[in-house]
Specification:
Blueprint: H1 9-15, E1 20-21, E2 42-46, H2 52-60, E3 65-70, H3 73-86, E4 101-105, H4 111-114, E5 122-126, H5 144-153, E6 159-164, H6 167-179, E7 183-188, H7 204-211, E8 217-222, H8 241-244, E9 251-252
The chain binds S-adenosylmethionine (SAM).
Residues 1, 46-49, 69-72, 75, 107-109, 126-129, 203-206 line the site of S-adenosylmethionine (SAM).
Amino acid sequence: MRMRRKKHGDERREALSHLLIDAAALTPGQARGFFTDPAKPLMLEIGCGKGDFVIGMAKKHPEWNFLAMERVPDVILCAMEKCSAENPSAAGEASLPPDNIRFCIANANALTEYFAPGEIDGIYLNFSDPWPKSGHEKRRLTYGSFLAQYRTVMDAGRTVTFKTDNRGLFDYSLLSFEANGWTCEDVTYDLHNSIWNADNVVTEYERNFSEKGFSINRVVAYAPKTNPDVLPVIPKPDRTDADSVQTDTDCVTVEKTNKM
Ligand SMILES: C[S@@+](CC[C@H](N)C(=O)[O-])C[C@H]1O[C@@H](n2cnc3c(N)ncnc32)[C@H](O)[C@@H]1O
């Protein structure tokens, strides 16, 4: 996400340091200790942007802790300021609500340096950058090397919940999850007109794209027992958007296809 540099960004982040985990202090096994109640399950959002999703989820699920990771400091500042504004009295007092959100400026390509095996209970990827050029496949947050890290920091059976408006990235991601041993469930190509909409917490990009008429794709992928020994090659999805749009139902089962 590109944004104009924020004035006094460092000072403004410092003022909200009770919400921010220093990436240097985030070492395997330590994450839960940054929350008021370390016993709660720990959910990770990667690429939290301006924070609408994680703030909404933290309010909806006070029984979970949420760590919002974002690599752009000025973007995470927006999220932190929004979070703090939810309860101005909480400024500087980590024990007051929202006490189940923390932010961290970090790149998700080093997740296993931040978290111990099995430390994370669920991962959310929302409107991840699509990196459409095939030469940039390794940068996609659903590329095999990222999935392998997700599986390492989460136990088998834990989930990655992935939403995007981008059909090409979505189709690629379904293939990548399955080729890497993950099980895709609750797949929809039109989340907002699906049975899952009532539970959906909308992100900034999601609001923007759905207002422009784009439908939202969503999958819940379950982590496999083990990571593959070798990263599988993911073929280019052969379905075009027009081929694969579901007109009769919004909920579909992912079919495994050998057609590449
Ligand atoms: C397209 S924006 C979506 C923002 C938000 N999730 C939403 O749905 O509105 C993607 C965000 O992910 C962040 N991001 C991309 N790759 C990342 C990575 N490897 N680690 C951390 N954040 C990343 C970007 O900086 C950007 O803010």
